[in-house]
Amino acid sequence: MNGLVKTAQRVMQNCVKNASITSALVSRSQAPVKRDFTRGIWHMSCSSRLGGSATNILHNHSNTCSCGCELKALHTKDQETPQAKRKALGERELVEFLTEEIVAERKAQKLKTLPAEVEGFQVKGDGAEVVLTKQLKDEIVKITFNVNHTVDSEDFGEGEVQTEKQEFTEMRSKPQFEVDLVRGDATLGFTCSFLQEPPAAGDEYNDIFGIDEVTLYKGEWSEKVYAVAGDVLDGYLYDLLMNLLEEKGVSNEFVQKLSDFSTAYEHSAYIAMLEGISQFTIGKK
Fold first, then answer.
1. What is the signed CA dihedral for 57, 62, 68, 72, rounded to 10 degrees?
2. How confident is the model at residue 202 (pLDDT cuts 50, 70, 90)?
3. Average pLDDT for residues 216-241, to the nearest whole number?
4. What pLDDT is recorded for position 186?
5. Which whole number is the average pLDDT over 146-151?
6. Structural domains of the chain, count
7. Does residue 59 lie in a domain region?
8. Membrane-spanning regions, if any (predicted)?
9. Which of 50, 67, 158, 230 is the most exposed place for a label (fewest CB within 10 A)?
10. 3-state DSSP call for residue 168?
11. Range of the domain at 175
12. What is the DSSP string of 137-163?
């Protein structure tokens, strides 16, 4: 019996001894790992050894790039978002097209320099508005028009055929215009416009423009001033008023030249706008 007890005690002692050794071995093998990891944390947080860069990484470990790339302290200025790339591509394509368009439009210009006078009328342009003035003996003839939304393609008359060399129809400006005959503080005003259909061949009346409205006032014009539409005027009175305009220099020939000048003026303004859009797109003022 005593022998069995002693044998059991030895077995138990050996088990305890082996367990202690195994525990010691496990603890010994894990200890260096813990020390290495602890040393790494201490080393990264030591600003004196890494010049503070590692400290910034630790302190800012949760910061991500605002562009959504989720990179931590690794984003550079050279990286662009898809939206920025599409915007840059769109602007570049616009500038390239405008460059080609400006060259083509300048090549198509009939008048490189706008005249300062049209049939004795002095020209003054202000943006889209143009004022033509002529001083007569006892009165001033003033013509005012605006070139915005006045351009349309030139229609071909009966019997006229577009040639193969004419890839595009000519764009012409035919603005509505005001004619003011000023004597002292009194003004006889006419609102005129180009006729939609050209006069037929052999027609007794070959006018290319007509009177839309007639008014007479003193001082400055206002909404209270009475005006009458041209299409309700007596036919004979209408003809007399047209003859009056012709005597003051506003004839069919002059109105045709007015259209020529307006076309050149509008074309010049269009090119200037294209150049402005190009400069705006590339960031120039």
1. 20
2. low
3. 95
4. 97
5. 96
6. 1
7. no
8. none
9. 158
10. coil
11. 121-150+171-265
12. SS-EEEEEEE-TT-EEEPPP-TT----
- The whole-angstrom separation of Cα 204 and Cα 69 is 79
> Is residue 72 in some structural domain?
no
Is 119 or 168 the better-scoring residue by pLDDT?
119
Residue-wise pLDDT tens digits, 95-106: 999 999 999 999
- From CA 145, how far away is CA 258, in angstroms rounded? 10
Q: Is 218 helix (H, G, I), strand (E, B) or coil?
A: strand
Residue 101, φ and ψ in degrees, nearest 5: -65, -40
**Of 136, 140, 124, whose CA–CA distance to 185 is shortest?**
140
In a domain, 101, yes or no: no
Residue 219 phi, psi dihedral angles, 5° rounding: 75, -140
Cross-strand partners of 171 = 153
**Has residue 37 been placed in a domain?**
no
CA 173 to chain centre: 23
CATH number at residue 239: 3.10.280.10
For residue 5, name the pLDDT band (cuts at 50, 70, 90): very low
**pLDDT score recorded for residue 201:** 62
